[in-house]
Amino acid sequence: MPEQPRPSFPSIPAALSHWAALRPDDVAYVFASSEKGSEHEVGYRELEHSALNVAAFLQTTAQRGDRVLLLLPPGLDYLTAFLGCLYAGMVAVPLYPPRPGAKLDRVEAVVRDCRPAHALTTDALLEHLQELPHSAGAHRLRLHSVEGIGKAEQGVYEPVALDGGDLAFLQYTSGSTGQPKGVMVGHGNLVENDRAIAEGFGVRSDDVILSWLPLYHDMGLIGTALLPLYLGVKAVLLDTFAFIHDPLIWPEAVSRYAATCSGGPNFAYQLLTDRYDAERLAGVDLGSWRIAFNGAEPIIPSTLEGFAALYGRHGFDRSALYPCYGLAEATLFVSGAEPMTGYRSLSVSRRAIESGRLQEAVPAEDGDSLVVVSCGEVAARTEIVIRSADGRALRDGEVGEICVCGPGVAGGYWDRPEVSEETFRARVAGRGGDLPAHRRSRCAPGRSAVPGRPQQGPDHRRRTQLLPARHREPRLRRLRRPASRLRGGVPAGLGRAPGGARTGSGAVRCLTAAGRRRRAAGAGCGGASPSGCRSRSRPGRRGLRLSRFDSQDIQREDTTGRDATAFPRRAAAPDRRGPSPVLRPRAGGPG
């Protein structure tokens, strides 16, 4: 039977309401444990009812456009709280949940920046967060327990008309070397980006998307939680904390649920390689896994090879490896590989890169080679240009900054017009409108590489990525010189189109991929209206990592008062190999 056309909706709430009416009792999400039979299924009608209950509550206590902090552990409550904000016309502000007793510096910084009126959290965190309004100077911030909201019907929900340019949520950058900045993601950005991911991944109606990624980061929230909801395909969500304690629950779950699409940052694949246990994984079948996306961090060829070799014993097809690239400022996804074609890598000369050229390394010249991994082709309806420091569009084989345009490009940073202007409105000579310029890149016929921030040079070889330079669309072929088909997580800034067009409007928005801090070169997703962005390549700038996130965040103790029904789980398996070096806490705030 031929594949049906992909659905198209103006917003995520519109998609949920559509599926709730069309397939009310079908399973939308499975919140899974590592043990068979220990899971919680949620249908579309039940999910819509819970989200509308949250929305109705917010409508009685907040105004449309108010910012609402989400300080919840991963699970059903987080998802329904986020969707409730969208239904009510509020602006969700997803954050990781601080453990009781932990410092609230980052949360306070976000509160000062976006001045939220309300915060949704758990009973277990209510007392701890009472300090927040006073320490942050936000005396109007009101805390609400999701348990309390869920226990009572909240009255009649008043439908809200959502426009693609209306603000949906603020995705805060890491702020590791400065104050966090909230990327303004519109409803149009979200749906356009999910459409781009669906096309890039080649998502089918019978796919099963499985994820352990945290919901308070863009890769987990947009790429693995909202994507299946938009498309009406089944999703299986694992407990993030359980994965960090016991990484092998990931391949076990892929086998159990016959998942077809699942992935994460490079460190996750390295964890599975380091913790491989043939005896425990006996009987695990990974033959269904056809999209193993890898983004949000530098993509390391040895990790891909090691993972494919070990898990190939369990039916994993190495052609399923899917490197991708993006940044939060582009919502998420910017470029990715062709589905089921595997990955490509190239050994290039570091000395040539230093001189502004891209050429293959000479085998005899020891220490000169730098291996880069291709991040595929640019997302649908997205355009990339490579720019010189003086604003010229570069020729093939030259090193420059990446400029990205598309409907996934966000509307700027919340309440930071000067930074937004600087980051989102770069210019490329000979082109009308604004374009963003970002990190150092090399172009070659059909591909380009992204080694790092211009001021860093090519020494940051672990974050280097290879990107194709030719566009498929005829109108973009004249831009062969620039890199063109990327997706994944790049640190960058974005900007607003001339005339102050709203996020998601028809105005073209462009963005640049800015350099990330040393250990965080992300990969992600994107697609939206072009608008201009100029990145100053500051250290610590969060990129469009499909969701680059600090492993520190998801390693914190599981004392956040999670709902036992949301993520049934077993005790973590003892780690016979000791802590993984990949998960060492690193300096700087969470991403």
Mean pLDDT, to the nearest integer, reads 75
CATH architecture call of the largest domain: 3-Layer(aba) Sandwich
Question: Can you identify the CATH superfamily of the largest domain?
Answer: ANL, N-terminal domain
With helices defined by DSSP (H or I, 4 residues minimum), what is the helix count?
A: 16
**Share of helix, binned:** 25-40%
Question: How large is the share of residues in beta strands?
Answer: 15-25%
> CATH class of the largest domain, please?
Alpha Beta
Quaternary? single chain
Q: Radius of gyration from the CA trace?
A: 22 Å
Instruction: Tell me the domain tally.
Output: 2
- The tally of beta strands, per DSSP, is 25
Q: Could you tell me how far the N terminus lies from the C terminus, measured between alpha carbons in angstroms? A: 43 Å
Topology readout:
Layout: H1 12-22, E1 27-32, E2 39-43, H2 44-61, E3 67-71, H3 76-88, E4 91-95, H4 105-114, E5 118-121, H5 123-129, H6 131-136, E6 142-145, H7 146-151, E7 167-172, E8 182-186, H8 187-201, E9 208-211, H9 218-231, E10 234-238, H10 240-245, H11 249-257, E11 261-264, H12 266-274, E12 291-294, H13 301-311, E13 321-326, E14 331-336, E15 345-349, H14 350-354, E16 369-374, E17 377-378, E18 383-387, E19 399-405, H15 417-424, E20 440-444, E21 447-452, E22 465-467, E23 493-494, E24 510-512, E25 525-526, H16 551-555
Parallel strand pairs: 1-10, 3-4, 3-5, 5-6, 9-10, 11-12, 12-13, 16-22
Antiparallel strand pairs: 1-2, 7-8, 13-14, 14-17, 14-25, 15-16, 18-19, 19-20, 19-24, 20-21, 21-22, 23-24
